[in-house]
Specification:
Order of helices and strands: HEEHHHEEH
CATH architecture: Alpha-Beta Complex
Distance between the termini: 50 Å
CATH class: Alpha Beta
Oligomer: single chain
Number of strands: 4
CATH superfamily: Putative Large Serine Recombinase, Chain B, Domain 2
Radius of gyration: 17 Å
Number of domains: 1
Strand order of the largest sheet: 1-2
Length: 141
């Protein structure tokens, strides 16, 4: 009985997450991504652009498209106020679809997964994000 309740609860939670992200376009995680801050509570919570951090994000995208090596982008971003550290901090910024107004949603039952529109302000336009993704995929080979 208890195991069945846990399974049902898990299904309802995953369905709620899918609905919030895919159908309503809400950001549901605790911490906002770099370049944003959260405003509001519960269903009215939205991501709002933090302009001082958004400047750094835009710089990272434009420098990468110009062909600047990632280690130089990391150094210059730290000078501009980028506080994240680690070997893949810049790659995470470059691959995060939320900056282009999209968010990744896992498939649930018969509903498809993938990238869905989110309801927040964009930092990077969609075409720039797609060019960066193409360049990231190409360089991995």
């Amino acid at each position: 009985m208890a195991e069945e309740d846990n399974i049902n609860r898990s299904i309802k939670v995953r369905e709620g997450i899918y609905t919030a992200k895919a159908k309503e376009g809400r950001y549901i995680f605790k911490n906002p991504p770099y370049g944003y801050f959260k405003v509001g509570e519960r269903k009215e919570r939205k991501l709002v652009v933090n302009e001082s951090e958004a400047i750094v994000v835009r710089f990272i995208y434009s420098a990468y498209l110009k062909g600047v090596p990632i280690y130089l982008i990391a150094e210059q971003a730290k000078e501009k106020g980028f506080r994240r550290s680690g070997n893949v901090a810049i790659q995470r910024i470059l691959s995060y679809a939320l900056y282009a107004g999209l968010q990744h949603v896992d498939a649930f039952k018969d509903y498809p997964g993938g990238l869905f529109l989110a309801q927040h302000e964009l930092i990077i336009d969609l075409s720039t994000w797609e060019m960066v993704q193409h360049k990231l995929r190409k360089s991995e080979k």
